[in-house]
Write a structure and sequence with these properties.
The structure holds two protein chains of two kinds. By secondary structure, chain A is mainly alpha-helical. In chain A, about 70% of the residues lie in helices and about 0% in strands. By secondary structure, chain B is of the alpha/beta class. Chain B is globular. Classes of the chains: A mainly alpha, B alpha/beta.
């Protein structure tokens, strides 16, 4: 079960909304926690990458994380001096190590097993769904308690409801505890707010199902897709079409999920901060990452960059702080112990550092050059992000820039058929990378007889596509 | 980016309209739908079925295919000398008769045996494939895309099965909007290469093999002068085989291949076994040949083409 599945939309969500809306105020957080546990269990067990046993393990891990961080929060608040620091350090370490363990232990044990087959057996580990998101919530909660920004939560159910919050647990955003606290205390649910949430939810659903899933076929659909042709055998135009499509798809999907989380939040009576702010219109790599997954960027800023001294230190130290953040960003995105995400983080750091030093300001301050430079660098970074191994990344770059290597494509027009299939959706997707559709929508919203039929059409067409098998797993949930 | 909670102009109208449409959809789903997990899904699958003319890929299609002109009578002799004739639409006696025979390969004692070509490969002939037709699923589409033999005709379509090959859908391989039935009715071929089975192998070997046999009979009826070359289904990788998606595994593929091979009479119907060319040492599709465990990398189609060019002629 994910946010686009029929089980979620037609069974879980209506039942949950009824229970949550009509529950007395003092039981609302209990209903939210129970609902989030139910959602999380089925989100794992109905995901083809997991089985029922995995779902129980994932749920247990979530429960343990809630209990440990609840206790640590109270400990931090009730101690001072070195003990307080130790409590925070223990909490941050425990949370970080659990994340690192699940990201790297499988790959590390496989490497050891390959070296010393008689001593080591490779660990077969699942990566708990949503771990990257809720562990980051846990860490930011502990630091907020430590800095005195918030008081430690006295009620484990309330804290659990925040950590396990079902609209955010599998795809974010990482809303901070301080930000969510007012809604833990009281959530007022009104029909206009539910109605408002439906708008966001339906637009997000449409972006995901109608546009994003269609764009995915460029890579996967046999025998036309890039993955089935083989990276080394595609033509150069197809390589460009492939990476541009991926860049659009990744944004449309993540933006769609973010809108769905915002919509669900409204239906539950709380406000979710937007996670994307049209990143592709940025003039620099730094700006792009301030507009992409804003809650993640803010988390790194608050929990790593500022504690290291932020920008109020010597230039060389600033660069070091940035390097740490980009390495951490790479690790956070790591999937199955793959080291390419570190390279990806370092690649982005390189350009962000050059921008910071002012070397590129003649580009980033120029509207024309900036709009060429930023999408280009980001596209190149997505090549590293998308391709499974660094060796594939190298191969793909040779297809993008054939002047650096031999040209061995099999069919020089291999891009035509895929382009014809997704062209319209790609143009639409690119359009949604700009603020234009939102502006049109806000104007249309004043005319319910126009906008409501459009919304219903988007909703039912999405449902039709989901029923016909369009609902695949998110690109952005496996981290 | 949108700031949160702009005031709703309709204060609840979308919510109400949505509820109404959901109730209607539930009702329609209960009336029209069948077989799916819930009424909404039932309704959507019903709509999909209506839109695609009953050609759903995941559902079990009927054995007897709609919209087929009746088959001409099974000839009792001189197949090789009769000039090509289109199917005789006025004869309505044999469609069922033919399906009744489908498990036994047609053995036609009176037919003049063709020159024994089964043991020797003919000399290269540049015109050999001019009147050849390749029919198949996405693998044949890939063959056409990345390694096609010039001059031949291709009727390949992603997700094609022996159940839907004669459906109203056109090919993806340059035959325009024609259906397979139309193509077979308008042009005569002397060689027809068929590769089908990987999409439908999980439906049950007997069921697929019997339908396969019927399909071969249909081809023979449409194209009485053609030699029909049944190509073996290439394996999938060990990992893909272990996933066993919709019953797609190498054990089933081997069982199906054996049944397809039994349809060959080495006179008009031949079996080309070349799946081993793509196998690794363990007898599964070599992982270095494929990105998704099923389809060959573009470059690897040349192995298939070279086999057809050198050993695939009868």
């Amino acid at each position: 079960m994910n946010y686009c599945s029929l089980e979620f939309i037609f069974i879980f969500l209506p039942l949950f909304l009824i229970a949550h809306t009509f529950a007395p105020t003092r039981f609302k957080n209990s209903v939210l926690l129970a609902g989030s546990f139910v959602f999380y269990y089925f989100a794992v067990s109905l995901n083809s990458a997991y089985d029922d046993r995995d779902a129980v393990i994932c749920l247990l891990l979530l429960g343990i994380a809630i209990l440990i961080n609840f206790a640590l929060g109270l400990l931090i608040e009730n101690t001072d001096g070195i003990t307080r620091k130790l409590c925070l350090a223990t909490g941050v370490l425990l949370n970080s190590l659990s994340l690192l363990f699940f990201k790297y232990a499988g790959a590390l044990s496989a490497a050891f097993a390959a070296l010393l087959p008689s001593t080591f057996a490779p660990l077969s580990l699942i990566f708990p769904l949503g771990l990257s998101y809720y562990i980051f919530k846990c860490i930011s909660y502990l630091t907020e308690v430590y800095t005195g920004k918030v008081r430690a939560e006295r009620n484990v159910i309330d804290l659990g409801a925040y950590f396990a919050l079902f609209p955010q647990i599998t795809v974010g955003p990482i809303q901070t505890y301080a930000d969510f606290l007012p809604y833990l205390r009281s959530r007022k649910i009104t029909l206009p707010m539910i109605n408002d949430g439906l708008y966001d939810f339906i637009i997000g659903l449409g972006l995901n199902i109608i546009i994003s899933t269609r764009l995915g076929i460029i890579w996967t659909e046999p025998p036309y897709g890039i993955e089935t042709i083989g990276y080394e055998f595609i033509s150069t135009p197809f390589a460009w079409l492939g990476i541009i499509t991926f860049a659009v798809q990744l944004f449309i999907e993540a933006y769609g999920y973010s809108l769905m989380a915002i919509g669900l939040g409204k239906m539950l009576g709380y406000i979710t901060p937007p996670d994307f702010n049209y990143p592709y219109i940025s003039l620099s790599v730094g700006e792009f990452w301030r507009r992409w997954r804003i809650s993640l960027g803010d988390w790194f800023k608050e929990n790593i960059y500022f504690p290291l001294g932020g920008s109020r230190v010597a230039t060389i130290r600033i660069l070091f702080n940035m390097l740490v953040v980009w390495i951490a960003t790479g690790i956070w995105h790591t999937d199955g112990g793959n080291l390419k995400y570190l390279v990806w983080g370092l690649f982005l750091f390189f350009f962000a550092a050059l921008e910071r030093l002012g070397v590129l300001s003649f580009i980033t301050k120029n509207k024309v050059l900036g709009h060429i430079y930023t999408p280009f660098v980001i596209l190149m970074s997505w090549v590293i992000f998308k391709l499974p191994t660094l060796s594939d990344v190298g191969t793909y770059f040779l297809r993008l820039f054939p002047i650096f290597g031999s040209s061995e494509f099999v069919n020089s027009t291999d891009f035509l058929s895929p382009l014809l299939r997704v062209g319209v959706w790609l143009v639409l997707g690119i359009l949604f990378c700009t603020p234009l559709p939102r502006k049109i929508f806000e104007k249309l919203r004043k005319y319910p007889p126009i906008v409501i039929p459009i919304m219903l059409a988007i909703f039912w067409y999405s449902i039709y596509m989901v029923a016909c098998g369009a609902n695949n797993n998110s690109l952005y949930t496996n981290f | 980016m949108k700031k949160n909670t702009p005031k709703s102009a309709d204060s609840g109208l979308l919510f109400i309209c949505l509820i109404i449409t959901v109730v209607i959809a539930l009702g329609l789903g209960l009336v029209f739908g069948a077989g799916a997990k819930n009424p909404i899904e039932s309704l959507m699958l019903f709509i999909q079925d209506s839109l695609s003319g009953g050609d759903g890929e995941e559902t079990l299609p009927p054995v007897v295919l709609p919209d087929l002109p009746p088959l001409p009578p099974v000839s009792s002799g001189d197949d090789t000398t009769t000039p090509p004739t289109p199917p005789e639409t006025e004869d309505s006696t044999t469609a069922d008769d033919t399906t009744g025979n489908d498990t036994t390969p047609p053995v036609d004692e009176t037919t003049t045996p063709p020159v024994d070509e089964t043991t020797t490969t003919p000399e290269p002939d540049p015109d050999y494939f001019k009147d050849a037709l390749f029919i198949g699923d996405s693998r044949t589409v890939g063959f056409w895309l990345y390694s096609r033999i010039p001059d031949a005709t291709y009727f390949g379509r992603t997700s094609m099965t022996v159940f839907n090959m004669f459906s109203a859908n056109p090919s993806e391989t340059g035959t325009g909007s024609m259906t397979l039935t139309e193509l077979l009715s308008t042009k005569q071929f002397t060689k027809i290469y068929v590769l089908l089975g990987v999409n439908e192998v999980g439906y049950g070997i007997d069921y697929v093999a019997n339908t396969y046999a019927t399909a071969v009979d249909y081809l023979k009826a449409y194209q009485p002068n053609a030699k029909i070359m049944l190509q073996s289904n290439m394996h999938v990788t060990a990992a893909k085989s272990a996933q066993n998606t919709y019953g797609l595994n190498n054990k089933n593929l081997d069982l199906l291949n054996a049944r397809i091979a039994s349809l060959a009479d080495n006179k008009t119907v031949f079996y080309l076994a070349f799946e081993h060319l793509f196998d690794d040492a363990t007898g599964n599709l070599d992982p270095s040949f494929t990105g998704d465990g099923v389809h060959l990398y573009a470059k690897r189609y040349t192995i298939w083409r070279d086999y057809i060019l050198n050993e695939g002629r009868r």
